[in-house]
Structure formats: C-alpha cells, structure tokens
Amino acid sequence: ETTRNLSIAAIMLGILTACAFGFFMIAAIMRRLSSAASIAESVSHGDLAVKVDHSPNDEFGKLVDALRVMMQALKGFESAQADIARRHDEGETSFNVPAEQFQGSYAKMAERVNALAQSHIAIQMKLADVMKHYAVGDFSVDMEKLPGEKMVITEACVEAKRNLVAMRDQIAALSGAASQGDFSQRGDPTQFDHAYLEMVNSL
Questions:
Q1: Is 200 helix (H, G, I), strand (E, B) or coil?
Q2: Residue 183, phi then psi, degrees to nearest 5
Q3: Are 60 and 36 in contact (CB under 8 A)?
C-alpha cells in the first residue's frame, strides 16, 4: 500500500511539474511574442526610434532580428529622403537617392523618388530654357504641352509668348508707319495689361 501511494504521489508530482514547466514556457513565449508585436506595431505607426534588444539565436530571436533589419532599412530610406531634400534645397538638383544601397521594394521606391524628382527638374530646366530664348527675342521655341495640373506652366509660357510677340508687332507696325512719315498711328492698348499697357500707351 505504501509503495502504491508513493507511486501515485510521484506521478502527481511529475504531472504538476510538467504543468508548471509548461505554464512558464507558455508565459515566456507570450512575453516574447508580445514584445515582437509591440515592435511591429510601433513600426507600423512610423515610430522608428523604438529600441530592439538583441535576442537569443532561436526562432523568436530570428523574428526580432528580422524586425531590426526592417527598421534599419526604413531608417536608411528615411535618411536618404531627407538627404535628397536637403541637397536639392541647396541647389544640387542632380543628386539622387542611392538606390543601389537598398534591396527589393526599397530599391524600387528609391528609383521612383529619383524619377519623380528628375521629372520635375526637367520641367523647370525646360521652362528656364524657353524663357531664356524669349528674353533675347527668339520666339522659335515653345513649352511642351504638359498634362494635368502642370498645364498651367504651358499656358503661362503661351501667354508670355503671345504678349511679347504682340508687343514686337506693335513696335514694328508703329516704326514702319513712322518711317513712312505717318506719326498718327497708335498702338492697340486693348491687347495688353499692366506694364505692357503703359508701354503701348507711351508709343
């Protein structure tokens, strides 16, 4: 009978020990899962300053390390965007985000940022070139027809060219009349506004 009771007690002790061990294992796993979930949530909200401690080299440690690598990539991309903004503000418009420093979708995002920036810069350079020609009286060039809301740039160039050409024609007509001895001719002020209107009225 004593042996039987001791056997039952040993079995019960084993069961209790296994249950306690299982409880502590589950609690440890839940803590680490909660920590990983907290890190992921912080990153999803844009908080890249969250601290990620080094974890043991097990499956959960690999998960946390993967989160750390992801955060480093996001921080790198954030830094690159700030760098391109600063460089462009300083006039270094040829600077691009070094896309080769990133991998996968991050590299593609960097390439898209570069393409977008260079697209806007190309429009600005084209506008500057057109205005440079107009400034010296060369009206042989036109601003390309831009799509969508950028059309306002094309329309501004068209209006500038129209006014300058009209002013040139007014001066040419009045000069031609004067060369023929006809000083009665006057410019047509209805085509102009502001300083151009004052110039035509003074002719």
A1: helix
A2: -100, 15
A3: yes
d(CA 92, CA 118): 12
What does each of the 203 residues of the chain score in pLDDT, given as a tens digit?
A: 667 666 777 777 777 777 766 766 666 667 767 777 777 777 767 777 777 766 666 677 777 778 888 888 888 888 999 999 999 999 999 999 999 988 888 899 999 999 999 999 999 999 999 999 999 999 999 999 999 999 999 999 999 998 889 888 888 887 888 788 877 777 777 777 777 777 777 76
3-state class percentages of the chain: helix first, strand second, coil last, to nearest 5: 75, 0, 25
Query: Tokens representing 78?
Result: 């954030």
Tokens coding 187: 């410019």
- Residues 6+ away with beta carbon under 8 Å from 127: 143, 153, 157
The CA-to-CA distance between both ends of the chain, in Å, stands at 131
Strands (E), the chain: none
**CA distance readout (Å), 188 to 24, 26, 62, 183, 199:** 94, 90, 80, 15, 11
